[in-house]
Specification:
The protein has a domain at about 185-330 and about 335-365 and about 420-430: Phosphoenolpyruvate Carboxykinase, domain 3. Helix 3 (about 55-180) crosses helix 8, helix 3 crosses helix 11 and helix 3 (about 55-180) packs antiparallel against helix 12. The protein is α+β, with helices and mostly antiparallel strands. It has helices at about 25-30, 40-55, 55-180, 195-210, 235-245, 265-270, 275-280, 315-325, 345-350, 465-470, 495-510, 515-540, and strands at about 5-10, 15-20, 185-190, 220-235, 255-260, 285, 290-295, 330-335, 360-370, 375, 400, 405-410, 415-430. The chain has a five-stranded antiparallel sheet with strand order 3-4-13-9-5, with helices on both faces. The chain is built from twelve helices and 13 strands.
């Protein structure tokens, strides 16, 4: 019998192999003679029971094994399905996460684009607003220059008027000086100062004796400004006039106004309203002492001239001025009003004294007039009928009276004795004659607030500027209070007057004065520059 513990090969070598292969031999070889022999019976008994179990127990073990395998397969299947489900869930979540990420990225891109567009719009709006303020800044300077140029032109025009008036006054005073010398004081012309009672009476007579509605609401003028008054003393004419007036009934002499052309002033002073033909026809009269009374140019015929120290001045200066002057137009209209119908066309004319360059200063003659045989027209008749002058064999009247115009037409020049020459000008309705620069109380120089149609720029809402910056309004540099801008207590109700008023606005702006315009323009440019500085600072912050 083979010892189960024996094998083949070298027992101590690596190639020793036991040739016990069955279970029983294995057990026996493992436990025989070992120190665990005491447990052998128990193991052998269990092993014997296993061997004695037979096929039934093997079948049960097989079934149990199969059941366990099925359970394992079921578990594997469940694990696989769970894994697949989890994979699907993870895949779905991954897809949704990717979509969310894509939407977030798209939103970020869109927001970035919107921010870029908003930034561009803000920059564009700020550029537009900056250009607007710069344009207003330049417009303020341009407007100021325009106003200063207009003021310069207006002051130049006023100076020309004053110079022309002063020259005419100087000529009249020079003429009066030589006239008194060359006529041996028979004819004198004196300039009255403003405190003279006769000057005050003449001024009051001119300003108060004005026809009703002559300076209407549509008129260019609102009254009369008296500049100077000259007193005429013509002794030969006065004696003749008094002699003729003494022959008439009391109350026949009236004080009336008439218009005198500038080129006829010297003639009116010396010979009144008579012409050269009238002087040649009349006979020399004699005074109470039997002396011959010379009139007109005959005054210069028998005067012994005394030479002046200045050899350059002619000793016949007054006579030469008299010869160069023209006869006053006659027959002429006279009125108790200082506003004659001959000047009514100036009230409605488009051209005013502010635009004239010839003779804005006019002359009225306040004369003594004899009203003898007078022909009166009806109220419906305008003007005067055409009848022969006084002295004609077919005319017994020396004057005519128009009831509609309330004026006289004198036909006999000997019945007119000029006493005062009143130099005046019409007072403009929309401007006073005050100088542009006044030394009186300070006027309000606060500027009109800039009227921008776009609202005030806010830090949080610049987009509104881009929508409204193109609708900017006008920007004025005219002070709120204009000195001298008056309507002479008359309201502008007529359309033509409103249209005329618009034409005087720019002149009224100029009349505000250089100081007022300068302060106003500087204040508004300072406000504009402040806005420009804020815009530049905001642009720097945005960049």
């Amino acid at each position: 019998m083979v010892n189960p513990s024996e094998g083949f090969g070298d027992p101590g070598g690596d190639e020793y192999r036991s040739w016990a292969t069955s279970g029983e031999i294995l057990f026996r070889s493992g436990f025989y003679g070992s120190d665990r022999g005491d447990v052998w019976p128990g193991i052998f008994q269990a092993f014997g029971d296993l061997l004695d179990g037979g096929a039934g127990r093997a079948v049960l073990s097989k079934r149990k094994h199969d059941r366990v395998e099925k359970e394992i397969d079921l578990v594997k299947d469940c694990v696989k399905r769970i894994h697949d489900y989890r994979m699907r869930v993870l895949t779905s979540r991954l897809r949704k996460t990717e979509e969310v990420i894509e939407r977030a990225l798209a939103s970020i891109d869109l927001n970035e684009e919107r921010l870029r567009e908003k930034h561009y719009d803000r920059a564009q709006a700020m550029d537009n607003d900056l250009l607007t303020h710069c344009a207003h800044f330049a417009a303020s300077i341009e407007k100021q220059c325009l106003m200063l140029n207009k003021q310069l032109a207006l002051e130049h025009h006023r100076n020309q008027i004053k110079i022309a008036n002063m020259k005419k006054t100087l000529e009249l005073e020079q003429f009066a000086l030589h006239l008194a010398h060359e006529t041996n004081d028979q004819v004198t012309l004196k300039r009255l100062n403003e405190t003279n009672p006769q000057f005050i009476r003449c001024k009051r007579a001119c300003q108060e004796n004005v026809k009703a509605e002559f300076f209407g609401t549509t008129s260019n003028y609102s009254g009369i400004s008296v500049m100077e008054v000259f007193k005429i003393e013509n002794r030969p004419m006065l004696k003749q006039f008094q002699k003729m007036a003494a022959k008439l009934k009391p109350g026949s002499v009236k004080g009336l106004f008439c218009t005198i052309p500038e080129e006829s002033l010297e003639r009116v002073v010396i010979q009144g309203m008579r012409g050269e033909k009238d002087i040649c026809k009349e006979e020399d009269s004699h005074d109470s002492q039997g002396k011959t009374v010379l009139t007109g140019k005959n005054l210069f015929s028998q005067v012994q001239y005394c030479p002046f120290p200045n050899d350059q001045v002619s000793s016949r200066f007054a006579e030469e001025r008299f010869n160069r002057a023209k006869d006053a137009p006659f027959p002429a209209t006279f009125s108790r009003y200082s506003t004659l119908e001959a000047n009514r066309h100036l009230m409605e004319s488009k051209q005013s004294d502010q635009e004239e360059t010839t003779e804005p200063v006019r002359t009225l003659a306040l004369s003594r007039v004899i009203i003898g045989e007078c022909f009166c027209t009806s109220n419906q008749y305008e003007g005067f009928p055409n009848i022969p002058t006084s002295g004609s064999s077919t005319n017994k009247f020396d004057s005519m009276f128009s009831s509609g115009q309330d004026e006289y037409l004198m036909l006999n020049p000997n019945y007119v004795l000029p006493e005062f020459l009143i130099r005046y000008k019409f007072r403009s309705r929309f401007m006073t004659d005050a100088p542009a620069e006044s030394t009186g109380p300070a006027t309000d120089t606060r500027a009109i607030e800039p009227d921008f149609s776009a609202p005030v720029i806010s830090t949080d809402d610049l987009q509104l500027l881009a929508e409204t910056t193109h609708n900017t309004g006008t920007f004025g540099v005219i002070p709120a209070g204009l000195p001298g801008m008056q309507l002479s207590n008359d309201r502008c109700t007529h359309p033509s007057q409103k249209a005329t008023l618009r034409g005087f606005v720019e002149t009224a702006e100029v009349q505000a004065g250089k100081d007022v315009v300068q302060k106003n323009a500087e204040a508004q440019r300072q406000a504009l520059w402040s806005k420009i500085a804020k815009l530049l600072l905001r642009a720097k912050e945005m960049s």
